[in-house]
C-alpha cells in the first residue's frame, strides 16, 4: 500500500506550532524579551511534536508490541484511578488531566483497533472500556461528554477498513464546528457573567468563572498581542493558589497572554492537525480525529495541555494514526481476515 502524500500538512503543522512558540517568546506582550524555556508555551508544543515523531516510529514495531504498549498505558491509568489514596489523583495529580489522558488512550486504542488483525480486537475493546472507566472514575463531566463519541468513533472505524473522503472530511468539518461552537459558548458565558443555561452546562463553579473573567479582562486590555506569557498568574487575584494559577481555559489563557495572534496560530495548529489526519486516508484517522477534537473541546474549560503526558500522547495518536497501515505488513492482514462474531 502506498503512503499518501501528507508530508506537506505535517510540515505546515510543525511550522504553525513553532510560529506559535516563537510568537509567545518574542512577539506577545509589550516589552517582553523572551519566554522561559520551561514555560508551557515551550514544553507543551515540544511534547506534542515529540509524540508525533514517536507515533510515526512506533507504527514500525510489531503489532504485538504496539498493542502491548496500549495495554500498559491503559492499565497504568486505570489502576491509578482505582487505587489512589485520593480517588482520581494518580498518575498526573489532577483528575481532569487524568481524564484527558484516558481519552487519548481511547483514541490510540481505536486507531490500532481499526487496523489490527481481528484476533486482537477483543483486547483493544477492553482497553477502550477501561480507559472510559478511568474517565468516569475521575468524575470529569466534560471529559465523559467527549470520551463517549471518541470511543464510538473507534468502534465505527473497525467496521470501515477504507473510509471514504466524504466521511473523513465530514467528520473533520463536524469537529471544527463543535470546537468553534464550544469556543463561542465559553466566550458567551464569560461576557454575560455566567447568566443563562450555558453556565449550568460549562461553568457551574463560580471560581472557574471568575478565572475566566480575569483572563478575558486581561485579553481585552491588550487584544492583539496579549499581556505576555505568565501575565495571568501575575495579575489574577486568585492566582496565589497553585490550583488557580492558570485560567482553566486554553482559549482564554492564550488570548490573555498572547492575544489574537496567538489564538489564530493555535487555531491553525488545530486545523492542520485535522488536515494531516484527513489526508492520511486511513480508518485509524477517524478515532484520532475524535481524540484530537476531544482534547480541543475539553481544553476550552480546563487546563490540560500543560500536563506533558497529555500533549505527548496526543502527538503519539496523531503520528500513529497517520502512518499505522503503511509501516507494518502485519496490519494488512487485518483486512484479509474474516470478522469475528463480535463484528457480525
What is the percent of helical residues? Answer: 55-70%
Write down the overall mean pLDDT. Answer: 84
The poorly predicted ranges are: 334-344
How many domains is the backbone divided into? Answer: 1
How would you describe the shape?
Answer: globular
Instruction: Describe the largest sheet.
Output: none
Terminal residue distance: 26 Å
What class would the helix/strand composition place it in? mainly alpha
- Beta-strand residue fraction: under 5%
The radius of gyration over CA amounts to: 20 Å
Helical stretch count? 13
List how many beta strands DSSP finds.
0
User: What string gives the helices and strands in order?
Assistant: HHHHHHHHHHHHH
Distinctive features:
344 residues; globular; mainly alpha; 68% helix; disordered C terminus
Task: Describe the overall structure.
There is one protein chain. This protein is mainly alpha-helical and 344 residues long. It contains 13 helices and no strands. The chain is globular and about 55 Å long. It starts with 6 loop residues before the first helix and ends in a 17-residue tail after the last helix.
Quick recap:
It is found in: Membrane. With 344 residues, this protein is mostly helical.
Furnish the topology, listing elements before pairings.
Elements: H1 7-27, H2 40-58, H3 63-83, H4 95-115, H5 121-137, H6 141-158, H7 165-191, H8 197-202, H9 206-221, H10 231-235, H11 250-278, H12 285-299, H13 308-327
Helix pairs in contact: 1-2, 1-11, 2-13, 3-4, 3-5, 4-5, 4-6, 4-12, 4-13, 5-6, 6-12, 7-9, 7-11, 7-12, 9-11, 11-12, 12-13
Amino acid at each position: 500500500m502506498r503512503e499518501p502524500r501528507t508530508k506537506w500538512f505535517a510540515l505546515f503543522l510543525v511550522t504553525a506550532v513553532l510560529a506559535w512558540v516563537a510568537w509567545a517568546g518574542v512577539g506577545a506582550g509589550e516589552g517582553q524579551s523572551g519566554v522561559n524555556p520551561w514555560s508551557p508555551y515551550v514544553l507543551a508544543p515540544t511534547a506534542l511534536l515529540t509524540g508525533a515523531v514517536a507515533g510515526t516510529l512506533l507504527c514500525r514495531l510489531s503489532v504485538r508490541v504496539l498493542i502491548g504498549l496500549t495495554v500498559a498505558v491503559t492499565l497504568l491509568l486505570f489502576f491509578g484511578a482505582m487505587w489512589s489514596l485520593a480517588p482520581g489523583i494518580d498518575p498526573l495529580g489532577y483528575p481532569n488531566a487524568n481524564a484527558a489522558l484516558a481519552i487519548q488512550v481511547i483514541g490510540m486504542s481505536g486507531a490500532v483497533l481499526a487496523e489490527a488483525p481481528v484476533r486482537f480486537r477483543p483486547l483493544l475493546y477492553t482497553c477502550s472500556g477501561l480507559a472510559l472507566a478511568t474517565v468516569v472514575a475521575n468524575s470529569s463531566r466534560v471529559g465523559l461528554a467527549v470520551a463517549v463519541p471518541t470511543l464510538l468513533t473507534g468502534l465505527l472505524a473497525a467496521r470501515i477498513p477504507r473510509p471514504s473522503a466524504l466521511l473523513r472530511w465530514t467528520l473533520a468539518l463536524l469537529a471544527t464546528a463543535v470546537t468553534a461552537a464550544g469556543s463561542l459558548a465559553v466566550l458567551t458565558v464569560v461576557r454575560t457573567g455566567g447568566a443563562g443555561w450555558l453556565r449550568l452546562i460549562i461553568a457551574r463553579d463560580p471560581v472557574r468563572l471568575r478565572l475566566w473573567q480575569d483572563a478575558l479582562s486581561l485579553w481585552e486590555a491588550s487584544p492583539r498581542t496579549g499581556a505576555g506569557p505568565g501575565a495571568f498568574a501575575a495579575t489574577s487575584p486568585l492566582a496565589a493558589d497553585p490550583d488557580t494559577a492558570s485560567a482553566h481555559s486554553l482559549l482564554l489563557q492564550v488570548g490573555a497572554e498572547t492575544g489574537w495572534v496567538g489564538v489564530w496560530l493555535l487555531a491553525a495548529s488545530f486545523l492542520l492537525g485535522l488536515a494531516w489526519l484527513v489526508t492520511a486516508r486511513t480508518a485509524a484517522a477517524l478515532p484520532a480525529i475524535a481524540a484530537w477534537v476531544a482534547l480541543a473541546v475539553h481544553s476550552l474549560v480546563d487546563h490540560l495541555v500543560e500536563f506533558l503526558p497529555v500533549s505527548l500522547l496526543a502527538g503519539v495518536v496523531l503520528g500513529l494514526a497517520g502512518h499505522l497501515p503503511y509501516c507494518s505488513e502485519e496490519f494488512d492482514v487485518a483486512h484479509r481476515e474474516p470478522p469475528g462474531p463480535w463484528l457480525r
